[in-house]
Write a structure and sequence with these properties.
Length: about 375
C-alpha cells in the first residue's frame, strides 16, 4: 500500500544528481524508502532521512561540492519495501487495524516460508498460537490471506504440516488461498506438481546442485526414490547421465515426475518404475553404474538391493542419504562401509568399498544432520 507523508527533499539540478546521490548515501542521509522526485524544470529532489541536518545540508553541499541546492518539504511517496518480512508485517498489522483487532501482529506473522512458484507455504510454527486460531476463523480471514499473498508476491498461500506417516510420505499442506498446483524453475530445471499432495524440500538445493555437477556421462543411473525428480532431473540435465531408472510409489509424485520430464525434454532418457522399489530394484539387478538413495530418515531398506543393481563387471557409486547425529557421523560411515564389505563378500562381487565423500547437507533437527555418503564399489 502506498502512503503519503511529508518529507524534506534536497533539490539540485539534474546534472549534479549522480554526485549528490553519492554524497548523501555516503553520509547516511538519503531516505531509501521514499521515491526520488523529478521536477518539471529538470531538477531532481532527493528525500532526506530524519537524521539529516536539514537546516544546514544545503550550505554544506555548497561549501564542500560547490553545488547550489534548495530545501523543499513535499509529500513523499513511499517505495514498496524490498524486504518481504517488512511487507508481511505491514500487511498483517493493516488487516488487524482495519478489523479492530488489538493483538500483537508478530503472533500471526510467519518468520519463515517456502516459495514454490506462485505458492508460498508458511511455516507450521505460526499456526500454533491462539492469535492465529482467532484470525483463521475470522469472517474476513480471506482478506488477510490475500494481503499476505500480495506481500509475498504470490497468488496462492498455504501452511506446511508434518509429512504424513504413510507409504507415500504425503504432504499435508493446508491451503488458505489459491491453487496448490505449482510450476517453477530451479537451476535451469522445471518442476511441476501438486504441493498439497507432494513434499518438496527447497532446503536440499545445494545437494541437488552438487549432484548435478558430478560427471555422469554415459552412465545408467538408478534413482531409488525419485519423487517429482529432485535428483533425477539434475542427473539428466546437468550431470549428463545417459539414462535414469526412476523408482516411485506415490501417484501424485509420479504425475509430477512425468510432467517435469516432459517439461524438461528428457522423457526419452527416463524409465519410470511405478510401485514398490523393492520390486523395481530387484528387476534392475546388474543394470546401473550409479544408484541414488535419497530417502530420509533412512534408505537402509534398499541398500543391499542397490548394491546388487550395480554392474558386476565395473561396479559403481552409491549416494546414500541418512539422518545422523553429528557426533556419530564418522562412526556411521565406518559402520556403513563394513556392512557393504560383508554384502560384497556374501554375494562374491569382488568389490573394494571406499567412502569418497560425506556431504553435510543441512541440520535436520538439533544435533542431527542430513548427510550424504558417496560410496565407491569397484572391482
Amino acid at each position: 500500500m502506498e502512503t503519503q507523508d511529508l518529507t524534506m527533499f534536497l533539490i539540485v539540478k539534474s546534472e549534479h544528481g549522480e554526485r549528490v546521490h553519492g554524497l548523501l548515501k555516503r553520509e547516511g542521509w538519503l531516505d531509501a524508502e521514499v521515491e526520488t522526485r523529478h521536477e518539471e524544470n529538470g531538477s531532481i529532489g532527493f528525500p532526506l532521512t530524519g537524521s539529516c541536518p536539514a537546516e544546514t545540508v544545503a550550505d554544506w553541499l555548497s561549501s564542500t561540492a560547490s553545488i547550489n541546492a534548495v530545501m523543499v518539504l513535499h509529500e513523499g511517496k513511499k517505495r514498496p519495501s524490498v524486504d518481504p518480512h517488512r511487507r508481511l508485517r505491514t500487511a498483517v498489522q493493516t488487516w488487524l487495524d482495519v478489523n479492530g483487532l488489538v493483538m500483537d501482529a508478530a503472533a500471526v506473522t510467519p518468520q519463515k516460508w517456502e516459495r514454490l512458484g506462485d505458492l508460498a507455504l508458511l511455516s507450521q510454527q505460526v499456526v500454533r498460537s491462539e492469535a492465529w486460531n482467532l484470525v483463521r476463523h475470522h469472517d474476513r480471514a480471506e482478506a488477510l490471506w490475500k494481503a499476505m499473498a500480495t506481500a509475498l508476491n504470490v497468488n496462492a498461500l498455504g501452511v506446511q504440516a508434518p509429512i504424513a506417516d504413510d507409504t507415500f510420505r504425503s504432504s499435508q499442506v493446508e491451503m488458505l488461498l489459491g491453487d496448490s498446483e505449482v510450476t517453477f524453475t530451479d537451476h535451469g530445471m522445471t518442476y511441476t506438481f501438486d504441493a498439497a499432495k507432494v513434499m518438496f524440500s527447497s532446503g536440499n538445493i545445494t545437494e541437488r546442485r552438487r549432484i548435478g555437477n558430478l560427471d555422469m556421462r554415459d552412465e545408467v543411473v538408478v534413482d531409488a526414490y525419485a519423487g517429482v525428480g529432485y535428483y533425477t532431473f539434475p542427473m539428466l540435465v546437468h550431470a549428463g547421465a545417459a539414462h535414469v531408472h526412476a523408482c516411485e510409489i506415490n501417484p501424485a509424485s509420479l504425475a509430477g515426475l512425468r510432467a517435469g520430464g516432459q517439461a524438461n525434454g528428457i522423457l526419452d532418457k527416463m524409465t519410470v518404475h511405478e510401485g514398490d522399489n523393492a520390486v523395481s530394484l530387484a528387476r534392475l539387478r546388474g543394470a546401473a553404474d550409479r544408484c541414488h538413495l535419497g530417502l530420509l530418515p533412512s534408505s537402509e531398506a534398499v541398500w543391499e538391493t542397490c548394491l546388487l543393481a550395480l554392474k558386476p563387471t565395473t561396479g559403481g557409486t552409491l549416494h546414500i542419504h541418512m539422518n545422523v547425529e553429528e557426533e556419530r557421523i564418522d562412526a556411521w560411515v565406518d559402520d556403513t562401509v563394513k556392512r557393504f564389505v560383508k554384502w560384497c563378500q556374501h554375494h562374491q562381487l569382488g568389490f573394494t568399498c571406499k567412502p569418497l565423500h560425506v556431504e553435510r547437507v543441512k541440520w535436520f533437527a538439533p544435533r542431527v544432520r542430513h548427510v550424504v555418503l558417496d560410496l565407491s564399489l569397484r572391482p
